[in-house]
Amino acid sequence: MRSRPVILFTALSVLTVGLFLLDLAVGAxxxxxxxxxxxxxxxxxxxxxxxxxxxxxxxxxxVALLAGAALSVSGLQMQTLFRNPLAGPYVLGxxxxxxxxxxxxGLAGVGSxxxxxxxxxxxxxxxxxxxxxxxxxIKDIMVILILGMMFSSGVSAVVQILQYxxxxxxxxxxxxxxxxxxxxxxxxxxxxxxxSVIVGLLLAVWTIKPLNLLLFGEEYAVTMxxxxxxxxxLLFLSTTLLAGTVTAFCGPIGFIGLAMPHVAxxxxxxxxxxxxxxGTLLSGAAVLLLCDIVSKMFxxxxxxxxxxxxxxxxxxxxxxxxxxxx
Length: 326
Known about the structure:
mainly alpha
C-alpha cells in the first residue's frame, strides 16, 4: 500500500529532472540534451553552448522550478487552512496584494530588488491577514471565497489607478510584469528569491502536523493540543514568503497554486500532508517547467499556458466538489 507513494515520488523526481534538462535544451537555439548535461557537469561541449546554458537558460529553469514548488505549496496550505478546494494565492487575492506592493514601488521608479520583494511580502501579508480575520468571524467558506475575489478586484482597481497616474516607462515595465515571466529574474534577484522560497518551504514542512490536524476542523485541532494562533502565524508567514516572493520577481502566475494540490491528491490518493506536501511540490515544479517549455516553443506568455492547463482542473474540482469543502 505504501509502495504507491514511493513509486510516484520516484517517477515525479525523474520527470522533474528530465523536464529541467529539456527546459535548458529548448529555446531559440536548440541544444542536444547531451550537450546540456555536459555543460552542467563540466564535460566536453562547445563553448557557445556552455555560455547559453549556464549564463542564460539556467537561471530561468531554476526560477521555474522554485516558482512551481512555491506556488503549489502555498495553494495547498490555503486550501487546508480555509478548508476550501478553490482557495489559492491567486484566487484569494494574495497575489493581488503582492502586485499592489510591487506597483507602489515599481511604478514610482524607486524599487530595488529587496525593496520590491519587501513590498510584495507586505502586500501579500495584509490581504492574507484580512481574509483570515474575516474567516475567523464568518464560517461560510463560499462567503470567504467570494470576499477574497472581491478583495482581489478592489486591489486590482487600486493598481489600475496607480498605472493611470504613472509615467510611461514605468507603466510599460509594469504591464509586461503583469503578464508573468520566468526569464526576467537577475542573479541578484535570484539571490533573494532562492533563500526566501527555501525558508518558506521549510516553514511549510514544519506545519505538516498542524495541517493534518486542521483537516478535521479547528475545534478538533484545539482538543489535540494545537496552538491555533501560532500555527496560523506560521502558515501565513510561509504563504507570504512563497507567494509574495514569486509574485514580486515573476509577476502574478495564475492557476498553479490552485490546481496542483488537486493533481497531487488525485495522483497520491492521500490526505496526509506528509505525502501530499512533497507530492504537491514536485507536481508544481514539474508542471511549471513544462509550461515554460511550451511557452518557449510557441513564444507565448507563461501565464497563458498555466491558465489553459489550470482551467480544466478547476472545472473538474467544481463539478466533483459541489459542497466546496476539502
